[in-house]
Amino acid sequence: MIFDVLTLFPGMFLSPLSESILKRAIERGIIQVRIVNIRDYAINKHGTVDDRPYGGGEGMVMKVEPIVRAIRSLKSEDGNIRVILLTPQGRLFKQSIVEELSQYSHLALICGRYEGVDERVKTCYVDDEISIGDYILTGGELAAIVIIDAVTRVLPGVLGGALSAECESFKDGLLEYPQYTRPIEFEGNRVPEVLLSGNHKKIREWRRREQLKRTLLKRPDLLKIAPLSKEDLKILDEIRENLRECD
Ligand code: ADE
Q1: Among residues 153, 186, 216, which one ends one of the domains?
Q2: Pick from 42, 84, 100, 237: CA 20 to 30 A from residue 145's CA?
Q3: pTM for this one?
């Protein structure tokens, strides 16, 4: 999968791409990340990439021509590229969008800066707009890194065990169950006995119950859309009942 990142700050991508799982995915050829400096596509010799907004107002707007020239040059190489603008106005990034994006073979991520990009970039050259959360970053670079990271880790061959991507939070619409490793006891807190029992059926049931409990307590909104079995609904009723008794 190819990620082309259009940015004014190429240096921001150096260390996230040279550590751990992303580094390995690049080395193995599962992903290719190409950083495109928008300034290289400026239309004057000063490398101007921004200008004052028509109509007045604070700040600077990223100019249309350098961004469009950069996109065109990528499209001339591959007509199937999907162009995404990172902006707080985009649709909210979540795991279902990660899965959706992982189906493409070539994404271009445009990192906006300043007060935004000229609207004409969006109307003709952008297929999708994505926000990574309801807050304003100084630019789209960190959002692009989030997207590259989240999409890469669901690509085949990136995570060690096939199961590690399967059992985690959100994949089945619920938060993940609690995890423990050695020591058995830490500052008086013991690992739950069931995990030491070797009884795999009991462990599975305990984990499912913990997933349901956590999701109910921390992210009840997810329960409305998670695919739940009759057994899950029964367990949820029991959990609610227990919580009422504790109140
Ligand atoms: N650029 C600035 N804020 C952003 C956000 N929350 N998501 C994506 N791009 C952004």
Answers
A1: 153
A2: 42
A3: 0.93
Q: Give the integer Cα–Cα distance in Å for 175 and 169.
A: 4
Extract the runs of DSSP E, i.e. beta strands, from the chain. 2-7, 32-37, 50-51, 61-62, 82-92, 106-111, 128-131, 185-186, 189-190
Mutation pick for ligand 1 pocket among 9, 136, 148 (CB with most ligand atoms within 8 Å) = 136
Taking the CB of residue 84, how many other CB atoms lie within 10 A of it?
23
Residue 128 CA to ligand 1 centre (angstroms): 14
| Least-confidence region, from 46-55, 75-84, 166-175, 177-186 | 166-175
- Residue 124 located in a structural domain: yes
Residue 163 predicted with pLDDT over 70: no
Boundary residue ending a domain (128, 153, 178): 153
Alpha carbon distance 87, 116 (integer Å): 8
What does the pLDDT average to over 178-192?
98
3-23 per-position pLDDT tens digit = 999 999 999 999 999 999 999
Number of structural domains found in the chain:
2
CA of 29 to the centre of ligand 1 (A): 28
- Which CATH number belongs to the domain containing residue 8 in this structure? 3.40.1280.10
Ligand 1 pocket: which of 84, 97, 132 to mutate (most atoms within 8 A of CB): 132
Q: Is 56 left (phi over 0), alpha (psi -120 to 50) or beta?
A: left
pLDDT in tens, 31-44: 999 999 999 999 99
What is the Å distance from ligand 1's center to 87 Cα?
4
Q: Judge if 201 and 79 occupy the same domain.
A: no
Residue 65 and residue 96 share a domain: yes
Q: Are residues 8 and 127 in the same domain?
A: yes
Note whether 81 and 186 are same-domain residues. no
